[in-house]
Design brief:
The chain is built from 2 helices and 4 strands; from the N terminus they run ββββαα. The protein has one domain: Arylsulfatase, C-terminal domain, CATH 3.30.1120.10.
Length: 101
């Protein structure tokens, strides 16, 4: 299954999204506010399904959070060549322990 990932960087509200054939998920940069749309039944994206417990939400969220972590690591590495890259799982573990945000 193919997905399209997009990032919209703005001053205070960076947004990232992932879109598959049927669903479109949008998260803010802290991964705490989201929108999920069923593009088949709601092509105008008016009904937000986020937080409704759909299995696809967890799947898309995991893919997008991994992509965001990788994107940020690569961005940091580009800004500072001495930065060591960490993978998405390690970042998630460090975040859970409170070492990084």
């Amino acid at each position: 299954m193919a997905f399209t990932i997009d990032s919209r960087m703005q001053h205070s509200d960076d947004k990232f999204s992932i879109r598959g054939a049927r669903y479109h998920l949008v998260l803010n940069d802290r991964h705490e506010a989201g929108k999920l749309f069923d593009l088949t039944n709601d092509p105008a994206e008016k009904v937000n399904l986020y937080g409704g417990g759909l299995e696809v939400e967890a799947d898309l969220r995991g893919r997008l959070v991994d992509w965001i972590s990788d994107y940020r690591a690569k961005t940091l590495a580009a800004e500072d060549p001495d930065t060591e890259l960490i993978d998405a799982r390690m970042a998630e573990d460090l975040r859970a322990l409170g070492y990084i945000e």
